[in-house]
Amino acid sequence: MNGKYFKPSDEKEGFALHTTHQAVQAKLIIPVVPCLRNQVPLKRSLILLTLISVVTSATGVLVYHVTLYSAEITETMELTQRELRLLDRLLDARLQAMQTAARVALNPRIGKPNLDGLRQATGAEAVLRLNSADQLIAASGPDEWFTNPPAELARALYPDAAARLVMERPAPSSAAVYLVTARSMEGERLVIWLKAAALNPVLAILDQGPVLLVDPGGDVAATTRAKLQGRKLSALAGNSPWRLWLHGDEWLVAAYDSITFPGWRLVKLTDRGALFSRLLKPFLSPTGLVYVVLIAIFAIALRTLYQRADREVRRRAEVEERLRASESMYRELASSDNLTGLYNSRKCHADLNYELERHRRYGHPLSLVVLDVDKFKHINDSLGHAEGDRVLQMIANVLQESRRKADSVYRIGGEEFLVLLPETEPEDAYVVAERVRDHLRQEAFETIDGTRLLITLSGGIAGYCGDETEREFFTRADRAMYEAKRSGQGELRLANKRRLDKVLTDKDIALGD
Fold first, then answer.
1. What is the 3-state secondary structure (H, E, C) of 278-339?
2. CA 403 to each of CA 16, 93, 436: distance values in angstroms, whole numbers, following the listed order
3. How far is CA 253 from its chain centroid?
4. 403 with 419: CB under 8 angstroms?
5. Looking at the chain, which terminus has fewer C-beta neighbours within 10 angstroms, N or C?
């Protein structure tokens, strides 16, 4: 019969088809595989390059900003120190001017001192005139001072008072007090008694931030900010000696030990946020603009490279997907029968060898059924090859519907089929073959012109014996199938075992022999 399982022509044809399939695969795979293998390194290289670029740019910007900010702070602190030194000299000049005005007022050539005018000009709380015995003879201030001078003033008025600046600790409820004295040739003294707040106009010269005059106890005696007057600087200081938190804002502190007021300090506060806002100024310089332009160009180039690489990776992924689909299609074509969709003889040969190896290793039972369509040549001759093809397709559908999930169905010749049954004894395989035969008898074939035909299959069933070859195994089932055909249409036969001459028929199986 045409299309035997071990037909030499089939082997040559299968080898030719397999060789062609390998050639087609080689043409598709060889140019693409290197690209596909480079996908992961390419992505990793891009990610690494991106990380290096981001870290480098961020580090550059950070170093640039920190360097400029540190330089800005250093420069600001040095400038502030010079400003505070100059401010201390201005305060000293202001006090020297008050002392000079007091001496001029005591000059007998000018006449009686104008204490009210002097008080108004200096901003003092009071101006006192004392005789050589330090007795109060005139004053410009509250009237009660003539009878009850303030305790701070009484303690300060002693004969050996310096003709410069006398500092007294005020009462807790009052502000710091300064005494500027001048003595005439006749021994009279003129005392200008003023509070530290009177020096605020001088401090206002540096009104680019809060300026404070702090006494040794930490009290703010004078300031350009009225809300800070009388407060303690230590209560506002932060952890760092050079930083200060004031009303929720952070300030940089520049302090200068006053020479005019020994033990006192001049303090200037610089808004730290203002320094950060000035950090943008270097970017507007020629060097800063070049830096910004280089970063922008690098970012654009990196983005363009990443987009191109991403497109290339996607393209290669698509090629890989098409290659897999093509390979799957070629494998399907190489192992499938075009007409029925069943596995072909090449696939049958590979699967049978695999199951034989499993049987030899584990000893599991294995059976196969060889089926042949009865009088198929007559069907082709009388109805035509198109109807014969439809008959084969109908039989393939019946085989697929009747088989178990573990079984495999193959078309191994023109009208010859094979069912491979792993883990199955021959008697159980016989039951499966009966089910296929009975199912086919119920599926009457209807031709195009409406004629109904009964299609039958003759089959041989063989169980594998562990010491036989693949060819011997198939041959026993094939001979049993020929014996069934000679007995009549739709018959099934169990192949005899190699050392037994008895052939079981349907009747024998039914009797349990």
1. HHHHHHHCHHHHHHHHHHHHHHHHHHHHHHHHHHHHHHHHHHHHHHHHHHHHHHHHHHECCC
2. 31, 117, 8
3. 41
4. yes
5. C
- Among candidates 355, 337, 327, 344, which has minimal Cα distance to 473? 355
Given CA atoms 193, 195, 198, 199 in this order, what sign does their dihedral have? positive
Tokens for 135, please give them: 């007795």
Amino acid at 40: V
Residue 390 token pair: 């439809």
**Through-space distance between the first and last CA atoms of the chain, rounded to whole angstroms:** 31
Q: What is the pLDDT of residue 505?
A: 41
Cβ-contact 139, 126 below 8 angstroms:
yes
pLDDT tens sequence across 257-271: 888 888 888 888 877
Q: Give the residue-averaged pLDDT of 163-173.
A: 34
Q: Copy the structure tokens of residue 440.
A: 């086919």
CA distance 219 to 255: 14
For 442, the token pair is: 């119920």
Residue 216, CA distances (Å) to 69, 373, 467 in order: 32, 120, 113
Using alpha carbons only, what angle is made at residue 134 by residues 132 and 135, rounded to the nearest 5 degrees? 105
* DSSP-derived secondary structure letter, 164: S
Residue 277 confidence (pLDDT): 60
Cβ neighbours of 399 (radius 10 Å): 24
Structure token digits, residue 263:
């033990």
Please, is 4 exposed, middle or buried when counting C-beta atoms within 10 Å of its C-beta (0-12, 13-18, 19+)? middle
Q: What is the pLDDT of residues 294-353, one digit of tens each?
A: 778 877 887 787 778 778 878 888 888 888 888 877 777 778 888 998 999 989 999 999
Give the pLDDT confidence score for residue 266 in this predicted structure. Answer: 87
pTM of the model: 0.42
Q: How far is CA 98 from CA 111, 166, 202, in A?
A: 18, 13, 13
Top mean pLDDT of 114-118, 185-189, 332-336, 501-505 is at: 114-118
Report the distance separating Cα 344 and Cα 340, nearest Å.
9
Q: What percent of the chain has pLDDT over 90?
A: 19
One-letter amino acid for residue 299 of the chain = A
Q: Three-state DSSP class for 246?
A: strand
Q: Round the average pLDDT of the chain to a whole number and report it.
A: 75
pLDDT band at 220 (very low <50, low <70, confident <90, very high): confident
Q: How far apart are CA 449 and CA 447, in angstroms?
A: 5
Nearest-angstrom CA–CA distance, 185 and 106: 9
The pLDDT value recorded for residue 432 is 92
